[in-house]
Design brief:
Blueprint: E1 4-7, H1 13-18, E2 24-30, H2 31-37, E3 50-56, H3 65-78, E4 85-90, H4 92-104, E5 111-115, H5 118-124, E6 129-134, E7 137-144, E8 149-152, H6 162-178, H7 180-187, H8 192-209, H9 224-234, H10 238-253, H11 256-268, H12 285-293, E9 298-300, E10 303-311, E11 314-321, H13 322-336
Helix pairs in contact: 4-5, 5-6, 5-8, 6-7, 6-10, 6-11, 7-8, 9-10, 9-12, 12-13
């Protein structure tokens, strides 16, 4: 199955939902998004369909076992069938959560996404990775379940808080290392709609080639192993954590050119903040290693697959042992206290 990625105007989202071939629509919407856009997305205008609505907690707060169970029981109690269609309205965390509900309820029903954050438009809504978090780490309970539709409406970006825009820019920065055409758009400061399209199409191509992430799709994990650890330790937005995870990777295993490139891209994308989250603090090697040991990308009990950038558009997967990673962190811990980009 291939996902249809389509640009739609805000006022046409309900008409797209009306086109779904089902008599039952399940809606999961982010609480904050719904408070801003419920008057633009009138569910009563969904015609000839039973509509079941579940409001999700904001962002990552919803990605837990308790909310997952509550949503499942809510929909099952209302009575649904396997041709029901779930529509998620929200950012990447909401689509992770809603997609996981869709992948498991009645052993899987079709679903579609209205991404409402920049991060979700360029990355999280595309590719079928769905998950909730565990106490042991981020996205460790999940599945692959491709959405039927991704309806992109850039108007949602207008009401994004600055911190969410910057988080999305962090993922755009990642894509800029993976594809030269995206890098060129960013450096030239092209229209954001062009950059969104380029990132979405690049990811869609990799997903088509490698849905289950056993080959080329792995390069999309650039910066994510360190990034997820940093995200948990410092409680910072995902895209920001990916940027710092990428920078940390380059500092430890990359080149001076990698670091110069990330500084140039950060400037072009106008991402604020030069100091790493651990700046002037003891670098948390033990905590980093603990999260790495539980990362989804471990290739064995003692090693981890990492994405190494040889040059813009040239990424390779290299397996690093935990002993090598820890030794490299230890050797650089004093420099890391003053790390900036």
């Amino acid at each position: 199955m291939k996902t249809e990625i389509k640009h739609v105007e805000l006022e046409n989202i309900i008409s797209e939902i009306n086109k779904l071939q089902t008599d039952t629509v399940l809606v999961i919407a982010d609480h904050q998004v719904w408070s801003l856009y419920s008057k633009d997305l009138l569910l009563e205008q969904i015609e000839n369909k039973k509509v079941l609505f579940w409001k999700a907690a904001d962002g990552e707060k919803v990605k837990n076992i308790t909310d997952f169970q509550n949503a499942m029981e809510f929909f099952l109690d209302k009575g649904i069938h396997r041709n029901a269609h779930l529509v998620v309205i929200g950012g990447g965390a909401t689509s992770d959560f809603g997609g996981f509900v869709a992948s498991t309820i009645l052993r899987g029903i079709p679903w579609s996404i209205v991404p409402t954050t920049l991060l979700s438009m360029v990355d999280a809504s595309i590719g079928g990775k769905v998950a909730i978090n565990s106490k042991s780490g981020k996205n460790l309970i999940g599945a692959f379940h491709l959405p039927t539709n991704v309806w992109i409406c850039p108007k949602f970006i207008e009401t994004l808080p600055a911190v969410e825009k910057n988080s999305g820019m962090g993922e755009v920065l990642k894509y800029s290392f993976l594809d030269y055409s995206i890098y060129d758009l960013v450096i030239r400061k092209a229209e954001m709609s062009q950059i969104i399209d380029a990132c979405a199409k690049f990811k869609e191509k990799l997903v088509t080639e490698d849905l289950k992430e056993i080959g080329i799709r792995k390069i999309l994990n650039l910066g994510h192993s360190f990034g997820h650890a940093v995200e948990f330790i410092y409680n910072i937005p995902h895209g920001e954590a990916v940027m710092w995870g990428t920078a940390l990777l380059f500092k430890l295993f990359g080149t001076e050119k990698n670091l110069n490139d990330i500084a140039a891209l950060k400037k072009a994308l106008e991402i604020p903040g030069d100091h790493a989250p651990w700046f002037n603090k003891e670098f948390p090697i033990d905590k980093i290693m603990m999260y790495l040991s539980k990362d989804k990308k471990i290739s064995a009990l003692s090693s981890l697959d990492m994405v190494i950038i040889k040059d813009i558009g040239n990424a390779e997967i290299e397996t690093k042992s935990f002993d090598e990673i820890q030794a490299t962190l230890e050797a650089n811990k004093d420099e890391l206290r003053k790390f900036t980009i």
